[in-house]
Amino acid sequence: MPRVVAVIPQWNRRDLLLSLLQSLAAQTRPFDEIVVADNGSTDDSALVASRAGARVLLLGQNLGFAAAVNRAIEASPADWIAILNNDVTLEPDWLAQLLTWASAHPANSDFAPQFATGKILRAGDSKTLDGSFDEICASACACRCGAGKRDAPVWNEPCPIRMAPMTAALFRRELFSEVGPLDERFGSYLEDVDFGVRCALLGRRGIYVPSAVAHHRGSSTLGKWNHSTVFLLARNQVLLARKYFHGQPLWPILVGQLLWGWIAFRHGAGRAYLKGKLAGLRSSVVAPVSIGDKDTKQLREVATAGEARIRSLGRQTGLDSYWRAYFWLSRR
To answer: Which CA distances in Å does 281 have to 76, 185, 227, 274?
Structure first.
């Protein structure tokens, strides 16, 4: 039987962590170990985790989501790694469903999924999706497919995916050796998209399993339009573009990222957006990845396929104003 470890990056909000740990204890297929990487919480999160039987890594300060996940993976020998936000809870068969689908083919098979994720519903609203899987487009901006949509038959079909949101997802451990760890320079936000881009460039695929259900509160620690959140998202969008999209058409990148800024301004976070973009442009932390013509072509194909899937899902469930404007302005 494969060994599965749950990895939870934690920074305060002991109440959320406790709810998650209770849902892990109720899994029909138990986790072999639970590791909580505590990013210097000022409440008693570490004590709560320890009392629940988890192994606690005390990082001493807030190193960010990516660093916390990496430290936990390094300390956890396992066949599969489940990465979980502290503000999710899982249905009792979440792990059993993902393992069944992800293990349907031998690990060395061309068809073996390297990761798996399920349907993520908004906590307290079982009829609305928080998300499913991610796609990236030519703007270097990502789409959390299904976010804010009403649950519908289209979200109940298992399918291959290129990217899994690390809100709640399962990964083969060897994938991190092959693709590399999470890029800690991103800190928090879009580090999972960055990882997904690397998977896509290497041709590593996953599977979406709608019968594996998680519930997500979403941005519970800081808040969705908190200025720190907007700053990090705006900065990391630029870092992602600088890292992979050099040599790609500039117009879609400008359109996609400026449209997101328009939304941030509408939510009163315009200054944070501008600061984030400037920080991304000035940063010397993330340099372009040296990719050859083959990878450049493959990235363009990944982005084109991502946009096609976003439009296809939009035709079935409705495109929101951001994507309508993006496709119209970029003529894509």
So the answer is: 36, 14, 18, 11
